[in-house]
Amino acid sequence: MAAQEDPDRTVELLWREPRDAVSRQGLSVGAIVSAAVEIADAEGIEALSMRRVGERLGFTGMSLYRHVPGKTQLVDLMCDAVLGETVAEVEPSAGSGLPAGSDVPPGPGGRSGWREALEAWARRYRALCRRHPWLAGVRGTRSVPGPNAMAGFEHALATVAGIGLGPAEMVAVVGLVGRFVEGEAVREAEVARVERRTGVSEQDWWGARESLFAELSRYPTLTAVWEAGGYDEPEDPFEFGLRRVLDGVEALIRQRDERRDESLSCAVCGTAMERGGTGRPRAYCSRGCQQRAYRGRRSGPRGGIRQ
Amino acid sequence: MAAQEDPDRTVELLWREPRDAVSRQGLSVGAIVSAAVEIADAEGIEALSMRRVGERLGFTGMSLYRHVPGKTQLVDLMCDAVLGETVAEVEPSAGSGLPAGSDVPPGPGGRSGWREALEAWARRYRALCRRHPWLAGVRGTRSVPGPNAMAGFEHALATVAGIGLGPAEMVAVVGLVGRFVEGEAVREAEVARVERRTGVSEQDWWGARESLFAELSRYPTLTAVWEAGGYDEPEDPFEFGLRRVLDGVEALIRQRDERRDESLSCAVCGTAMERGGTGRPRAYCSRGCQQRAYRGRRSGPRGGIRQ
DNA sequence: GCTCCTTGTTTATGCTGTAAACAAATCTAT
DNA sequence: ATAGATTTGTTTACAGCATAAACAAGGAGC
């Protein structure tokens, strides 16, 4: 269960050259991953087993282990494979290659269209999670990002670049929206799965829980909400949540805007600076601070990359 | 695996009288649940098996089936058991028993303190999820709510009652915040679990993925964010996200406030009404509409309750 | 004493991921 | 062409899981 846990092997597989199409008539990583995705799509991730994948390709289960280290790595490969679908939908990001500078240059949508762009990214991700209902549930904090995951993350980051957020805030915003989408997708997938498995819809199931309703009177607020029709036309959790989250991000951006307008402080030593009338607003109070920041950047930052 | 799936049996168990303390020296539901919680807390939910629980109590695994229908129901019972811890922390909600009326009366914190109250609820829930790292991961859309889950939900609803939101919006807000907390808790629990299992910290693990960094230059925005220090002092995902979500809720409330100030429309027929100077703002344009709304409420609403 | 019910045990089934040994085919060097 | 090495797929085996079914022991009521 925990023998061949070598992430570098996974990296190698994920970023391998797609010379996979050589198609010697036997097994191949690509064929295995495709078969696995088909099974998981059609019958759910819990129906995915090494034996099933092997048999679908006309081999035994053990045969897969000659091409893929284990099941967890197979799932990693499946993730990046399907993430590739979405990348194709977006026009190439064409990010301006400006390297450093404490500010990150604006991305698609420019300085004002961030909300539409970020929302579109969230919706694309959600659509992907609906096509592959197992996806959101298996992306862990240590699943190695493949090229497609990286491209998606890059695009999302570019979405909130150059609108006044700090770099850590940009990462946090993308993470928040991404995890929101995944959370809702997991929920939705679970509903669909048990509905299909049991043949009973969510509505019907909860409707049949009369024994619960008997206790309702003990909860005054819930009773009032119920009687006011709070469950007659429920809000769509995804739409409602996405609006709230984006509103929250908007509030953050506005807050940053205001702060920048009223007072400008050096990015290194924090001393207050007066606002120059025109041109690019300065980030450092003096040439010395600018140099210090540069040296700090060169010596290399620490911490992990996450999608 | 799918035989004794009778939710009503689960309801019965969850809402059973706590006469459980009779303590005939054999097994009992309470003892089983406690033992299961201890195992899951100490060794993770994946280490929880019927055999382990039985053996911890000095019996065989199969013995549990005389008291609990199956493992899934046992997990339901575990959830409500630990949710009971939090309820005790809060002063009794003392909800004003006003029954109907299209408005839901204000809860703890009153008409202005909703944010503090809701945030406190979220933090309590999170603390609970940290004490029992398996909790957030097992609460599904069809896990039957026990008395403690219901009490928690009631309290959270009361938190956003009477501040101008519609009933469906109240439900949506509580759901959004709850799922946010659960999502972050699941993430955090996963990090802790793999750190303990592998002995490698998240930082170290990502640091060792040099092979990934080699590709970094292909992603200009990510590179810029990295070089600007976006990963040096990352935002705390929970704190950052909670602020964003609450900001989003605040925006919604402000929006509702403005709409109500500028124009008032009948809750039944929607026709515009002028604003009376003083007193409680009227919800219906005429006695007739008020009566229609009342009949609508009496005939009973439809839909499911969810936490 | 007899019967019924509750409680716990034993045995068995079918599923999982994967380690280890083995066999066959194919590639490489001579 | 032939010997050796490498790759690829198979067989067998193991430990673990939830739980169905049959069985055994004790207590309660008649």
Automatic annotation (TrEMBL), chains A, B:
InterPro entries: Homeodomain-like_sf, HTH-type_TetR-like_transc_reg, HTH_TetR, Repressor_TetR_C, Tet_transcr_reg_TetR-rel_C_sf
DNA-binding region(s), residue ranges: 49-68
Region annotation (Disordered) ranges: 92-111
Domain HTH tetR-type: 26-86
Pfam families per record: TetR_C_1, TetR_N
Keyword Cell inner membrane among record annotations: no
Keyword field contains ATP-binding: no
Keywords attached to this entry: DNA-binding, Transcription, Transcription regulation
Protein name from the UniProt record: TetR/AcrR family transcriptional regulator
Species this chain originates from: Streptosporangium longisporum
